[in-house]
């Protein structure tokens, strides 16, 4: 124990422990975490980009932009929570993303409805499928057969 605490002081022990912990994590869980972090980065990048839309003369348009930015912030937070396989966050994610996509397709990008829905819908389905696969990978016991 004392050696680990001493090694943790220089950070090497912590890195070794973290690497040892990730080597036992199933590939599906690692893939889900990587996708979650990537989506968080994309959503957080899009939020400041919406600031340019606030230059509009229309108060109603600016209101939709503010609502869009709030929904994107909530979505990023839920994605961050979901990376730890938090089922509540995954279930709550459509409550923020569907309205955000609808606002984007209807009020911010006029006339691009099918295009604005197709990529997020496909990505959402892949995300849920990867979540289910990752959860199934964590509930299986090592060495157990599929028939058990």
What does this structure look like?
The chain is an all-alpha fold and 148 residues long. It is 78% helix and 0% strand. The longest helix has 27 residues, at 113-139. It is elongated and about 55 Å long. The two termini are 38 Å apart. 16% of the residues are buried.
Low-confidence stretches: 1-20, 144-148
DSSP helical segment count: 6
**Overall 3D shape:** elongated
- Report strand %: under 5%
Q: What sequence of helices (H) and strands (E) makes up the elements? A: HHHHHH
Please name the defining characteristics of this protein.
disordered C terminus; mainly alpha; 148 residues; 0% strand; disordered N terminus
What is the compact description of this entry?
Mean pLDDT is 82; it is low at 1-20 and 144-148. The protein is built from six helices and no strands. Helix content is 78%, strand content 0%.
Helix-strand layout with pairing:
Blueprint lengths: L1 H8 L2 H12 L3 H23 L9 H24 L4 H22 L4 H27 L9
